[in-house]
Each structure stands twice: as structure tokens, then as C-alpha cells.
Design goal:
Blueprint lengths: L1 H13 L2 E5 L8 H8 L5 E5 L13 E5 L6
Antiparallel strand pairs: 1-3, 2-3
């Protein structure tokens, strides 16, 4: 049982504090979104997918914070 708890805790520390941000305006830029998100905590990574054909933003993002509490 202790092994399972330790394994769960190890897995938990490996999973980043990542959140999904949806329903973004297609005009929202990465810098603009980052400026808003840093108010909640330290942003480690911000990924805004773009359409392969057009290169335009798809209207959502994934944000990774340094801690789960900040996310």
C-alpha cells in the first residue's frame, strides 16, 4: 500500500499544473493573454495552437503554472 501511495505522489509531482483556457477571441495575442495570466501566478509555459492551413489562432490555449495552487 505504501508503494502505491509513493507512486501516486511521484506521479502527481510529474503532472504539471496545466489548465485549459477556452473561448478566446481569435484576435487575442500570446503576449496579451500572458499579461493577464501572470496575475494569478508564475506562468511556466503558454501554448496557443494555430490552424495548420491558415496559421490563425484556434481560440484556446494551454497554460502551465509553476504550482498547482497558482493554477
Amino acid at each position: 500500500a505504501r508503494g502505491a501511495v509513493a507512486q501516486h505522489e511521484q506521479r502527481r509531482t510529474l503532472i504539471p499544473a496545466k489548465i485549459f483556457v477556452g473561448n478566446l477571441s481569435f484576435r487575442t495575442g500570446k503576449e496579451e493573454l500572458n499579461a493577464l495570466l501572470v496575475e494569478a501566478g508564475t506562468v511556466v509555459d503558454l501554448y496557443m495552437p494555430t490552424d495548420r492551413a491558415t496559421g490563425k489562432p484556434r481560440g484556446f490555449a494551454f497554460v502551465e503554472y509553476s504550482t498547482e495552487a497558482e493554477a
